[in-house]
Write a structure and sequence with these properties.
The structure is a single chain. Residues 1-28 have low confidence and may be disordered. The strands form 2 sheets. Strands 6-5-4-7-8-9-10 form a 7-stranded parallel beta sheet, sandwiched between helices. A 3-stranded antiparallel beta sheet has the order 1-2-3, with no helix packed on it. β8 (164-169), α5 (182-202) and β9 form a beta-alpha-beta unit. It has 8 helices and 10 strands. By secondary structure, it is of the alpha/beta class. The protein has 2 domains: 1-30, no CATH class; 32-278, Rossmann fold, CATH 3.40.50.720. The structure holds nicotinamide-adenine-dinucleotide. Residues 41-42, 44-48, 66-68, 91-94, 119-122, 142, 169, 171, 214, 216-217, 219-222 line the site of nicotinamide-adenine-dinucleotide.
Length: 279
């Protein structure tokens, strides 16, 4: 168990309280991503923003990239104000040109790339016969092709950086079928197996790749789904833990995969769904 008691403003005296065994406590003076350079797609809000704040607090230099420029620049200012290192760059994950520009920018600014979080995503609720070809393409372009393009752009930069960690945000919807959202489930299922393929291909170069599978999480994406608070509360009552995750609870898992603490973890899937797919 690790408890960070740091804040951006007192980086020089950051302490981590670490249990080395069930009974022994030791203090170590280190941040979990110290000097690492990270790109987070879809980082302007929701889970991506929670990851950006946590990564910066743990010593990373963070490039947040998103379609949402106002939110992105606002988050950059907030993190910098608190003493973190962060910069926003506009990105459409479906554009290979944008990805190449982003990685080039990151490399020029920081001289390396250690971490890529492919977090950007869109949702679509609708059964097979309610899903148009255009909706199918939109969801799969952002959620699946966008991850492929991000991985493809990052690999050469990670290779010359001496290795790296790629974390692809999939979903619990990639693990079980759901007739309400076949386009979304298919797009996230693709991310799961793309991640394993990348893990195998690049393990010998020190590049790890894992997928994260959040369950329902309290972000705008969830709020799009429910007409009112009562519907959301009713749905929460059906969950194993009777609630949704906070974005920070997902970010904690992403941090583990980004850090060297997970140095022997690749090709794996980290399910953070409060037990919902355990049923
Ligand atoms: N919220 C949930 O319950 C939940 C559950 C499982 C998985 N997820 C996944 O987690 C990830 C984060 O979602 P969230 O819940 O924070 O949602 P969110 O809607 O708050 O954030 C998604 C972000 O992705 C960005 N984005 C969308 N299309 C983009 C594009 N083409 N290029 C660049 N950026 C783009 C958005 O602008 C936004 O900032 C997504 O991949 C989502 O599918 C969410």
């Amino acid at each position: 168990m690790v408890v960070s008691i740091s804040s951006y403003k007192d980086i020089s005296i950051v302490c981590v309280l670490r249990y080395t065994s069930a009974t022994q406590l030791v203090w170590s003076e280190r941040m979990r991503l110290k000097d690492k350079v990270a790109i987070i797609s879809g980082g302007a809000k929701g889970m991506g923003a929670a990851e950006a704040k946590l990564f910066a607090r743990e010593g990373a230099r963070v490039v947040i990239a998103d379609l949402l420029e106002d939110e992105g620049y606002r988050l950059e200012a907030e993190i910098v104000e608190e003493g973190g290192e962060c910069v926003f760059k506009p990105l459409d994950v479906t554009s290979e040109v944008d990805w190449n520009d982003l990685v080039e920018f990151t490399f020029a600014k920081y001289g390396k790339l250690d971490i890529l979080v492919n977090n950007a995503g869109v949702f679509f609720l609708g059964g097979i016969e309610d899903t148009s070809e255009e909706e199918w393409d939109r969801v799969n372009d952002v959620n699946s092709k966008g991850v492929f393009l991000g991985v493809k752009a990052a690999i050469p930069a990670m290779r010359v950086s001496g290795g790296g960690s790629i974390i692809n945000i999939s979903s619990s919807a990639a693990l079980v079928g759901d007739p309400r959202m076949p386009a979304y489930s298919a797009s996230k299922g693709a991310v799961r197996l793309l991640s394993k393929s990348v893990a195998i291909e690049y393990a010998s170069e020190g590049i790890r790749c894992n997928s994260v599978h959040p369950g329902g999480t309290n972000t705008d994406m969830t709020y799009e789904l429910f007409d009112n608070e009562q519907d959301l509360a009713d749905n929460n009552a059906l969950k194993v833990m009777r609630r949704r995750a906070s974005p920070e609870e997902i970010a904690n898992g992403v941090l583990f995969l980004a850090s060297d603490e997970s140095s022997y973890v690749t090709g794996s899937e980290l399910v953070i769904d409060g037990g919902d797919t355990a049923r």
